[in-house]
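Page header: ASSEMBLY MODEL / four components / 642 residues total.
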Amino acid sequence: MTEATSADVARLAGVSRATVSHILNGRGQRFTAATHEKVRRAVEELHYRPSPAGRALVRGRSDLVVALIPYTTFGTNLQDAIDRLSAEVATIGLKVVVRLAGPDLTGTVEALLDLRPAAVLDWDTLPAADRDTLRTAGVALIDAASTRLNQDAGRLLTVAVLARGPRTLLYAALLDTRSDIFGPDRYAGMAAEAADRGLPAPDLVAVPLDPAGAAVALQPHFAAGTPLAIGCYNDEVAIAVLSAARTHGRTVPAEVTVAGVDHTPVGQLITPRLTTIRVDSSHLLGTTARLLADALQAPAPSPPVTAPTQPALRLIPGETT
Amino acid sequence: MTEATSADVARLAGVSRATVSHILNGRGQRFTAATHEKVRRAVEELHYRPSPAGRALVRGRSDLVVALIPYTTFGTNLQDAIDRLSAEVATIGLKVVVRLAGPDLTGTVEALLDLRPAAVLDWDTLPAADRDTLRTAGVALIDAASTRLNQDAGRLLTVAVLARGPRTLLYAALLDTRSDIFGPDRYAGMAAEAADRGLPAPDLVAVPLDPAGAAVALQPHFAAGTPLAIGCYNDEVAIAVLSAARTHGRTVPAEVTVAGVDHTPVGQLITPRLTTIRVDSSHLLGTTARLLADALQAPAPSPPVTAPTQPALRLIPGETT
DNA sequence: CTGTTAGCGCATTCAA
DNA sequence: TTGAATGCGCTAACAG
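Prediction written out in full:
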């Protein structure tokens, strides 16, 4: 059984293909209810699904929305976010598809252009030149990374690690072949909060995700002997920092306070239990879906049903602060 | 500047569209070198990229290979695998795209059919009925999950946790809304290895990824008082088991031995350092690419350059066995 | 041997 | 409501 075409539907319904197309695309106000019904039934009976190729051909672009995911560890947070985003954009007839942005960005834009997507959601992975290329190619480009949200997360980090009083402030970034996407914003947020409290901007340490490397990276800071307050890029980095503290014989949270971001399961399973920040992605998503709808001049998606009362960020106190 | 079409190329090269098509699709043996060159130059100059829509229209299916990723935590292992897979299949003109399979599979197949992909790589997420649906729709369906590899991982788990001598064997599975995809095979492998050693099949415990839940799940087994050997679905579950052991006051590895799978960074950062199994995905990938090529009757991809000497699985001893 | 003509596949939209 | 044209690439059949 091969796929039914709009011609099949038209034949079965006893109308022309143009009529089918009009009705199926919301331009059917001028047709009688009876015609609507005939078409609806033919569609049903034939299990008709419009060919994306045909549609893409005439529209000049496909129905795809490519979510360009950074090459970095991502937990269920992002996965949930994508899931919900798919549901959102489905309401405006688009399909979300994920591309993992490898460490070598060369070729990524080529690949994207080959896809002829309607839009690209970029989590800060593309260099400016590539972004321009896409835009001039008529692809709607949406910034999925929220500067604001990450800066706020950075502020919360400062608040958390300074809960036991003022100490030397540090930001632990990810040292890795992967790009550190949200890092700069989180650091900026930490620094801003520090400034508000009359403190100097935190030093920045790149921490590798292995015990020996982490110990080496933090050695100079531990050497000073003063108590430290370390805000971390995410929970994984925080765990690396805890490992380094153990290696150097520092007690947590007495001599070193540590906080991460993401509220990962492991962070809550280890001892001491990690102080962390939970990011609720649904806010971000509402915005993204709306941006998409605007950019594509599609009808705006129905407003999110989820109550907007839950805060986007929440501090989850643990045993490391 | 709008996208160039094959007609533009033909015009610039001073040949017909058919000639362009023939040459660009390897059917150009009968054309002179000069013609080849003219076309090549026109393509170059116009930055011509064949329209995926046009191609899909005539072929009946798109160039997409959809990797259906299970709704479960996945680390960089899988990400690397996808990355390499993309490179592999690019050589046969296909593009890999990822779909996160949400916890609600309903609608997933519909979405897949809407994409009209050339192939779907399924990591054991689709129920049999859906697989049939896809197959009859002409989509090449490839099993990406390797039963063999996961069973071998299970065997290695048994070996690892029994290193300190025979004890009560246990398999800790993931308890979660997400599907536990590799679990059954890993359990089977553990049981097989146990049988080879004349031991009974291990009990199966579903362990949630939070401290309290994990403690409750393992309580009955700890209560027996005998030493335990616990093979875990992955590193995360192993960390949950370690947490439960702490809660119940059991020492690791004296009273409880634990091993995970994945060799995640956090597993190596915590104390005690986790015994784990590293899975090298490149083997699996070579097979997958070949399967794809066969299924699509495309020219086989060039044999992988990576030396096939590295073992697919490697036991990384830690401090938990 | 070298290359072209003509028509297909599918949905959309303008003009009638 | 509909016929006809459009967008793009592929290929069987055919001509020089």
